[in-house]
Specification:
The protein has 297 residues and is an alpha/beta fold. It folds into 2 domains: 162 residues, Rossmann fold (3-Layer(aba) Sandwich); 126 residues, N-(1-d-carboxylethyl)-l-norvaline Dehydrogenase, domain 2 (Orthogonal Bundle), CATH 1.10.1040.10. The protein contains 13 helices and 9 strands. The strands form 2 sheets. A 6-stranded parallel β-sheet has the order 3-2-1-4-5-6, with helices on both faces. A 3-stranded mixed β-sheet has the order 7-8-9. The protein is elongated. It binds nicotinamide-adenine-dinucleotide.
Length: 297
C-alpha cells in the first residue's frame, strides 16, 4: 500500500480520503479548514500544516478543490505541489474545473517530469462517501494506469476519456445535458399540471416513452414518482443549484473558447442564474420547477 497526500477535504474530498484509508493507504491530508482535517485525523490520517508538508515523501497526490484558481495555486505556487513532491509521484486532480486550467497544470506537471490526470467525478456526496463515484479521466495511457489503482478505491466506474483535459470536457458536456434535461422535464410537468394531467401518469408514460432521461426516471422534480428524489425532501440537495450553475458556466465558457454553439446551454445558464439569484443557490437544482411554475418567462 502507498502513502497518499489528499488536499481539499470538503463535502466530496472528506469521503474520498476516508475510502483511501479504508483501502489500506497511509493518508497525509491538508485543508484550509481545520475541522475538515480533524475529521480525517479521527479516521487515521496524518494532518499536515501546509500543502508542501502534505506532499513530502508520498507516492500519490489527490486534490479535490473548488475551482480552477485553487487548483492552479495549489499545484503551481512556490509552496505548491510541483515544487515539493518526490520523483515518480502520480498526480490526480478530481476537482471540476475549466478545461484550459486542467491542461495548463498537466502540461506544467509533465514539464517537471510528473504524470498527472484530470479526473473529475459524477455521483455527489453520497457516492463519494460510499466509494461509488464515476471518474472521467484525462491523460496519457501510463498516467491513467498509475492513477487507476487509487481511483478504484474511491469509485465504481473509472473511464479513460482521452488526453489531458478530456475528463473535464466529459464532465461539463454531461452536466450541460443534465441541466438542460432537468429544465425540460420540469417544463413538461408544469405543462401537464396546467392541462390537468396527473404527474404520476406523465411519469408512468414518459419513463417508458421517448421523453425518458435520468432527470425524469432517477431524479423526478415533482414529489411522488421517485421517492428518493430531492422533490420529496423540500428540494434539499442532492446537487445544489449553485453547482449546476458553475458547471453550466464552465460549459458555455468552453463552448465560446472553441466555437461550439450551445444555445440551450446558454438558456439553461440564464435560468439557473435567475433561480440562484432568487435565494435558491443552496437548493437542489431540481427545485427550478418551482420557479418555472410561478413565472411567466
Ligand atoms: P467543498 O467546498 O465542500 O470542498 C472544497 C474544500 O477545499 C474545502 O474544504 C476548502 O477548505 C478546501 N480548499 C480550498 N482551497 C484550498 C487550498 N488552497 N488548500 C487546501 N484546501 C483548500 O466542495 P465539494 O463539494 O467537496 O466539491 C469539490 C469539487 O468537486 C468541486 O470542484 C465541485 O464542483 C466538484 N463536485 C462536487 C459535487 C458535489 O455534489 N458536491 C459533485 C461532483 C463534483
Amino acid at each position: 500500500m502507498a502513502t497518499v497526500a489528499f488536499i481539499g477535504l470538503g463535502n466530496m474530498g472528506g469521503g474520498m480520503a476516508a475510502n483511501l484509508i479504508k483501502a489500506g493507504h497511509t493518508l497525509k491530508v491538508f485543508d484550509l479548514n481545520e475541522a475538515a482535517m480533524a475529521a480525517l485525523q479521527e479516521q487515521g490520517a496524518a494532518p499536515a500544516g501546509s500543502v508542501a508538508e502534505a506532499v513530502t515523501d508520498v507516492d500519490a497526490v489527490v486534490t479535490m478543490l473548488p475551482a480552477g484558481q485553487h487548483v492552479k495555486s495549489v499545484y503551481l505556487g512556490d509552496d505548491g505541489i510541483l515544487k515539493n513532491i518526490p520523483a515518480d509521484t502520480i498526480l490526480m486532480d478530481c476537482s471540476t474545473i475549466d478545461v484550459a486550467s486542467a491542461r495548463e497544470v498537466i502540461a506544467a506537471a509533465a514539464e517537471a517530469g510528473f504524470a498527472m490526470v484530470d479526473a473529475p467525478v459524477s455521483g455527489g456526496v453520497a457516492a463519494a462517501a460510499a466509494g461509488t463515484l464515476t471518474f472521467m479521466v484525462g491523460g496519457t495511457d501510463d498516467a491513467f494506469e498509475a492513477a487507476k489503482t487509487y481511483l478504484d478505491a474511491m469509485g465504481a466506474n473509472i473511464i479513460h476519456a482521452g488526453d489531458a483535459g478530456a475528463g473535464q470536457a466529459a464532465k461539463i458536456c454531461n452536466n450541460m445535458m443534465l441541466g438542460i434535461q432537468m429544465i425540460s422535464v420540469s417544463e413538461a410537468f408544469v405543462l401537464a399540471e396546467k392541462l390537468g394531467l396527473e404527474a404520476q401518469k406523465l411519469f408512468d408514460i414518459s419513463s417508458r416513452a421517448s421523453g425518458q432521461c435520468w432527470s425524469l426516471t432517477s431524479y423526478c422534480p415533482v414529489p411522488g414518482p421517485v421517492p428518493t428524489s430531492p422533490a420529496n425532501n423540500d428540494y434539499n440537495p442532492g446537487f445544489a443549484a449553485a453547482m449546476m450553475l458553475k458547471d453550466l458556466r464552465l460549459a458555455n465558457d468552453a463552448a465560446e473558447g472553441c466555437g461550439a454553439s450551445t444555445p440551450l446551454g446558454h438558456l439553461a445558464e440564464q435560468l439557473y442564474t435567475a433561480f440562484s439569484d432568487e435565494g435558491n443557490a443552496g437548493k437542489d437544482f431540481s427545485g427550478i420547477i418551482n420557479m418555472l411554475r410561478e413565472e411567466k418567462l
